[in-house]
């Protein structure tokens, strides 16, 4: 649990940020258009990428210990930049307009969800590089960290997709995203400091 809880919180911090994928999941939830399918694709994709990150970075670290130092600095720089960007974005938060467009068929929904997931370079930085390198700071608990991060994805996408109707007014307010951006920024900067000190 000492590794799973940080994994959960880190995973949530990385995926909660407003973006195209979250806007799409929210839109599908509000229109009740293949919500379960979208949530499953997003959550399973995150779990797969997190596992790849933990496995790959773990093997790299065992063979090349100096790589961990490089990853630590790159990871800390990315986290700090991400945190600063979130804090900066909280100054002028954007409201989502998830009701743009019409309901789509299953094939279109699957294609769009996969594209928003795998064609986004940030997903690789967040899941494969970032979560993989942070997980390896937990030594023997890295897979617990990975499971916590994957659980964070399941929790977030399920809540966003299926809770969209109930939270439609709240999620469309810029003030909601301001609070989220500030929280994300603080957590990311704290993680960057921890990564450097670790």
UniProtKB/TrEMBL annotation:
Compartment list: Cell membrane
Membrane topology: Multi-pass membrane protein
Main location: membrane
Keyword entries, A-Z: Cell membrane, Membrane, Transmembrane, Transmembrane helix
Keyword Membrane listed: yes
Residue stretches spanning the membrane: 35-61, 70-88, 143-163, 175-197
Keyword Transcription found: no
Pfam families: LysE
The protein's name in its UniProt record: LysE/ArgO family amino acid transporter
Organism: Georgenia daeguensis
């Amino acid at each position: 649990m000492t590794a799973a809880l940080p994994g959960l919180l880190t995973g949530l911090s990385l995926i909660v940020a407003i973006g195209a994928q979250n806007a799409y999941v929210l839109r599908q939830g509000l229109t009740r258009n293949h919500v379960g399918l979208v949530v499953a694709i997003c959550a399973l994709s995150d779990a797969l990428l997190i596992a790849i990150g933990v496995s790959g970075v773990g093997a790299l670290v065992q063979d090349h210990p100096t790589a961990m130092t490089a990853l630590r600095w790159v990871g800390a720089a990315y986290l700090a930049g991400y945190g600063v960007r979130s804090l900066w974005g909280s100054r002028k938060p954007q409201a989502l307009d998830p009701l743009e467009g019409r309901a789509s068929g299953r094939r279109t929904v699957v294609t769009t969800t996969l594209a928003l997931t795998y064609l986004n370079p940030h997903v690789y930085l967040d899941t494969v590089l970032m979560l993989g390198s942070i997980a390896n700071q937990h030594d023997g608990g890295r897979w617990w960290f990975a499971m916590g991060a994957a659980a964070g994805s399941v929790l977030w996408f399920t809540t966003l997709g299926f809770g969209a109707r109930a939270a439609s007014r709240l999620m469309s307010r810029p003030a909601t995203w301001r609070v989220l951006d500030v929280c994300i920024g603080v957590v990311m900067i704290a993680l960057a400091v921890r990564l450097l000190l670790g």
